[in-house]
Design brief:
single chain, alpha+beta, five-stranded antiparallel beta sheet, 6 helices, 5 strands, globular
Length: 170
């Protein structure tokens, strides 16, 4: 929504739905982003999307002081532009096109349900199902991403609120 509001690039329907535990790559600005600093490159996140943000207007980003901090996995065999996966809109606003809140235990239970398992295999194939199940509870994949991004964001917000309260009292 923010990318549409600020006219930052193209939002379009993907050629195929993206679902699973996918690698996400940091950009040069992403290497400096404090929410991503304890994550490797690539880091892994839950991806579930029919739409994507591509063709960013770099002049517009520069004009508004925004930074692209992560992009879609590298796919050399596919001749398509890589989607933008995370943006630092401002000091207060950080947006992702993946799910940093993904709960590994809940996802495993959901995908073990026979109905959900069959639907995933039908839509994405057995290989994708097994890959997703295998990656969900790896300590270096979405468990790490979940432990880093949201807690760091919330702690930073809390520190900023407390700082503003102290300044207002002084």
């Amino acid at each position: 929504m923010a990318s549409i509001h600020w006219k930052l690039g193209t939002i379009n329907r993907r050629k195929s739905y993206s679902f699973g535990v996918m690698p996400v790559h940091k950009t040069e600005d992403g290497e400096k982003e404090f929410l991503l600093e304890n994550l490797p490159d690539p880091f892994y996140a839950v991806d579930s999307r029919a739409f994507q943000f591509i063709e960013p207007d770099h002049d517009r980003f520069e004009e508004l002081g925004m930074k692209i901090v992560a992009i879609e996995k590298f796919r050399p065999h596919i001749n398509l532009e890589r989607a933008v996966m995370a943006i630092r809109f401002s000091e207060e606003i950080f947006g992702t096109q993946f799910h940093p809140e993904a709960n590994p235990a809940g996802m495993i239970e959901n995908l073990k349900d026979e109905k959900n398992k069959e639907a995933m295999i039908e839509n994405f194939g057995m290989e994708k199902y097994l890959e997703t199940i295998d990656r969900i509870d790896d300590e270096d994949k979405i468990i790490l991403t979940q432990a880093q991004i949201l807690p760091r964001f919330l702690n930073s917000a809390k520190e900023n609120i407390l700082k503003q309260q102290k300044e207002a009292i002084a």
